[in-house]
Amino acid sequence: MKADKNDLGPKTRIWEDPHIFDVNRRPMTATAVRYQDRAEALSDKVSNQYLSLNGPWRFDWLPSMTEESDDFFRQDYDDKSWSDIEVPGVWQLQGYGNPNYRDTGLPPGIDEKHPLRIDPQQNSLGRYRKKLLVM
Asked: Residue ranges of the chain with pLDDT lower than 50?
């Protein structure tokens, strides 16, 4: 279910609603690459119309969600104090926060009427930025 965080009401924080699993995310699509012609498509060359988003991105890690800034997506936002991080990657394995992994399943019987409460002081947040020139 997609939702706008403004539609949740004053008491429900977006990360506490078990029905919301993404916000402001584009629909998933199959990967397709355009080529100039059939010969180029059959060659081993990378198309000049392909842009990989892998590589270094600007990254800001916040230890809790209470510090969230809503305007970091603006083009004029100053991210000079941010670090670089490798994408794709796991920020906990690149020096941010603590990796928490379970080798068993989730607790049984989560009640949707009383979902687990997430302490915003214990839930870190990572923000990414990358400048692209698309022609």
From this structure: 1-10
